[in-house]
Amino acid sequence: MAEKNAAQATHLLTHRFTTHGNLQPSMQSSPEIERARLFEVEGETPAWLACYESRNPFDVSDSLGWTGNALNMAGMAFELLRDVSNEGHTQNETRWLYVVHTDVPDDVAAEYTDWYDREHLPRLVRVPGVVRARRYVACDASPRFFTAYDLADRHAFTSPEGLEARKTPWTEKMRNLFSNTRRFTGRLIVDEVWRGP
């Protein structure tokens, strides 16, 4: 398990949206964005997830990157809390994104962070097929916590190793405290690295 360099992008803006006829949206660059990725979300509406990475905070009200064929757009801005990678994989192996977006009660938020950082993320990022795991906190929005797992193997978490990694008493306790939870998997469609200012 390797921690990522602090000089990387530390802010994330996500957009969930649909398009006319569910056509793939086109992209436009922005000087604030270092990397833009588009995922097609499996079996859900909205069907698209756009992720923009930057070293600077985002204003959710800005219309970054996507053309007018986006409908029902919902954007959220996040700040990076933790970024770990599986040393057995490289970033260009990513084909899928698995997201857990949730709230926890305020009185257990500190324990939630401790559990994720000390147990959950280190165990999950060692599962074969998991490339990278990043944990974010929302800037004044709910659900507050957003965890994104880059996967080389769509079924990494349902493999015997993936199931075993999640089987701990602390994990069971914390997952029972989740509320307003959204889980989904997206297939990587576009991955573009742009240079910031």
Instruction: List the uncertain runs.
Output: none
**Bulk shape:** globular
SS-based class: mainly beta
CATH fold call: Alpha-Beta Plaits
Task: Please give the largest β-sheet.
Answer: 8 strands, antiparallel, barrel
Give the N-terminus to C-terminus distance in angstroms.
31 Å
Question: Helical element count?
Answer: 3
Radius of gyration: 16 Å
> What is the topology, as strand order, of the major beta sheet?
2-4-3-9-6-8-7-5
Beta strand count? 9
**What is the CATH architecture descriptor?**
2-Layer Sandwich
User: Tell me, what is the CATH class?
Assistant: Alpha Beta
Query: Overall mean pLDDT score?
Result: 86
How many discrete domains? 1
Helical content stands at: 10-25%
Q: H/E element string? A: EEEEEEHEEHHE
Strand content: 35-45%
